[in-house]
Design a protein that fits this description.
CATH class of the largest domain in chain A: Mainly Alpha
Radius of gyration of chain B: 18 Å
CATH topology of one domain in chain B: Rossmann fold
CATH topology of the largest domain in chain A: MetI-like fold
Strand order of the largest sheet of chain A: 1-2
Number of strands of chain A: 2
Order of helices and strands of chain A: HHEEHHHHHHHHH
CATH architecture of the largest domain in chain A: Orthogonal Bundle
Largest sheet of chain A: 2 strands, antiparallel
CATH class of one domain in chain B: Alpha Beta
Order of helices and strands of chain B: EEEHEEHEHHHHEHEHEEHH
Largest interface: A-B, 19 and 26 residues
Shape of chain A: globular
Number of domains of chain A: 2
Number of helices of chain B: 10
Oligomer: heterodimer
Number of strands of chain B: 10
Helix content of chain A: over 70%
Largest sheet of chain B: 6 strands, mixed
Chain lengths: 292, 253
């Protein structure tokens, strides 16, 4: 009888501990989800009434207290496009080299170390580097070009990482079959591996764009300005951008309280852009995974 | 009447890193004959097969010493273009691996990568190859469907058609039927029998009965060494070495 009772005691204790741990995990997951919901709700509540067609299609007037954020939207889109034009070719080419050509060894390890460290560089350091190198040394000035190059560097590890993952997901057996038929390595990559990796590369690109869209520090010194009277016409133009606009309105504008609604409105537009892109990428990726 | 060896290994050693996998293999593969390589797992038969078209080059830190002669020329000579070699020595793999493309594009792949663009020529060759692989009747109405929609046996025959499309002289088959059901296996074996009139075939199989059914010559390997090679009938009924006899009768394996 004693044995049975003792067993029951141990069983109960184990069950209680397990229940407690699961509750802890559930609470943690809930905090995660709740945090995002709280942020979104807050922004929507505060910024919703600032959103209208004027807001989205007109430039700011009256020292930014009225009007819209059209130049910011255009500027952010230009920078995203520019960043991807820089990061995508270099990133995909690097990933192909690392995954398909490079023989395992010291050089490859050094390159990977470099990429991982690049991913860890604080964004404000990217901004300073962009200022010193692109804006000043290469004399590009504060411009879309300088900003795109800086953001491109920031986005590069994202592209390389997701491209490598996509390449690795293509089964080796396809490569073997192709080479066995007398194709060169490049033909194999071009005709079989890349087409197979394309969906994964696309997902990485979308995530990269969304990252570039939200960064403030790298563009602060290299591309974005407080105010520019017209929309950009060349890559050497300065531009306004969504994240920088929020920063400027909230800290250095001439009438912070009056512009508060527009700050929230801008933040809402930005977060809608970023979350929207992320959501697209996540849904697309999960559809891909289901197919496999 | 002895046929001249189409392809042969001469004193071939092979290393994966520091570990030696093949020890001094010397073996002739005669033209328009089927040679089967048999032996227990890990005996080196697949390794030898992959040396013949230098697919082992893909493995880092591996090296071959000795010669593999195709029509008298050493394929391991530094001046040899490996890519061209693989057009002459084709391969079919254990697990069917059609590309995620249409049936037509799978068979045409080898031709396209070799620069052939002429539509009529491609269409003609695709049809011929699919007929040679005994698959034409089953797929002729749906050449533009995805190859992945075919059954396992059909996929493997597609892979054979794909290999045949570039008109190799030698066809290497690495356990081509081991992933397939008995009926598909039988179809593949009939195919091999028909193909040997045009091609030199070397097949690795862990299935001794298949070797006995399909091959003219059988070579028995053990732990990286060639133990015995002879005409199939002789090897299976009157093997010269005790070790061969033990393996064939199932004393070990």
């Amino acid at each position: 009888m004693n044995k049975v009772n003792h067993k029951n005691g141990v069983q109960t204790r184990r069950k209680v501990i397990q229940g407690a741990m699961f509750s802890l995990f559930r609470v943690s997951a809930a905090i995660n989800g709740a945090a995002l919901l709280v942020v979104v709700y807050f922004l929507v509540a505060k910024g919703w009434h600032a959103i209208n067609w004027t807001f989205l299609s007109q430039p700011p007037i009256d020292s930014m207290t009225r009007g819209g954020i059209l130049p910011c939207i255009v500027g952010t889109l230009c920078l995203c496009l520019g960043a991807i034009l820089v990061a995508l070719p270099i990133g995909v080419a690097s990933a192909i080299y690392l995954n398909e050509y490079a023989r395992p060894g010291r050089i490859v390890r050094l390159i990977r170390l470099g990429i991982n460290n690049l991913a860890g560089v604080p964004s404000v350091v990217f901004g300073l580097f962009g200022l010193a190198f692109f804006v000043v040394y290469l004399e590009m000035g504060v411009s879309i070009l300088a900003g795109s190059l800086t953001l491109g560097l920031l986005t590069l590890p994202v592209i390389i990482g997701s491209t490598e993952e996509a390449l690795r997901a293509v089964p080796d057996t396809y490569r073997e079959a192709s080479l066995g038929l007398g194709a060169t390595k490049w033909q194999t990559i071009y005709r079989v591996v890349l087409p197979g990796a394309l969906p994964g590369i696309l997902t990485g690109t979308i995530l990269g764009i969304s990252r570039a869209a939200g960064e403030t520090a790298p563009i602060m010194f290299t591309a974005a300005v407080f105010y520019t009277p017209s929309l950009p016409t060349s890559i050497f133009d300065e531009i306004m951008a969504l994240p920088y606009h929020i920063y400027v309105l909230a800290t250095a504008g001439t009438d912070i309280e009056a512009t508060r609604p527009l700050q929230y409105g801008t933040a809402l537009v930005l977060i809608a852009l970023v979350l929207g892109l992320n959501l697209i990428a996540i849904i697309y990726r999960s559809r891909l995974r289901k197919k496999r | 009447m002895k046929n001249s060896p189409k392809i042969s290994a001469q004193d071939l050693d092979f290393y994966y890193g520091d570990s030696q996998a093949l020890f001094g293999i010397s073996l002739d593969f005669n033209e328009n004959r089927v040679t089967a390589l048999i032996g227990p797992s890990g005996c080196g038969k697949s390794t030898l097969l992959r040396c013949l078209n230098r697919m082992n080059d893909l493995i880092a830190y591996s090296r071959a010493e000795g010669k593999v002669l195709l029509d008298g020329n050493d394929v391991y000579d530094p001046s040899v273009d490996v890519v061209a070699l693989r057009r002459h020595v084709g391969m079919v793999f254990q697990k069917p691996n059609p590309f995620p493309k249409t049936i037509y594009e799978n068979v045409a792949y080898g031709l396209r990568v070799n620069g052939i663009k002429n539509r009529d020529f491609l269409a003609d060759r695709v049809e011929t190859s699919l007929k040679q692989a005994a698959l034409w009747d089953e797929v002729k109405e749906r050449l533009n469907d995805s190859a992945l929609g075919l059954s396992g046996g059909q996929q493997q025959r597609l892979c054979i058609a794909r290999a045949l499309a570039v008109e190799p002289e030698v066809l290497l088959m690495d356990e081509p039927a081991s992933a397939l059901d008995p009926i598909s296996t039988q179809k593949i074996e009939e195919l091999i029998h028909a193909l040997k009139k045009t091609y030199t075939i070397i097949i690795v199989t862990h299935n001794m009965q298949q070797a006995a059914r399909v091959s003219d010559i059988t070579a028995f390997f053990y732990l990286g060494k060639l133990i015995e090679a002879d005409r199939t009938e002789t090897l299976f009924t009157r093997p010269k070495l005790q070790q061969t006899s033990d393996y064939i009768t199932g004393r070990f394996g």
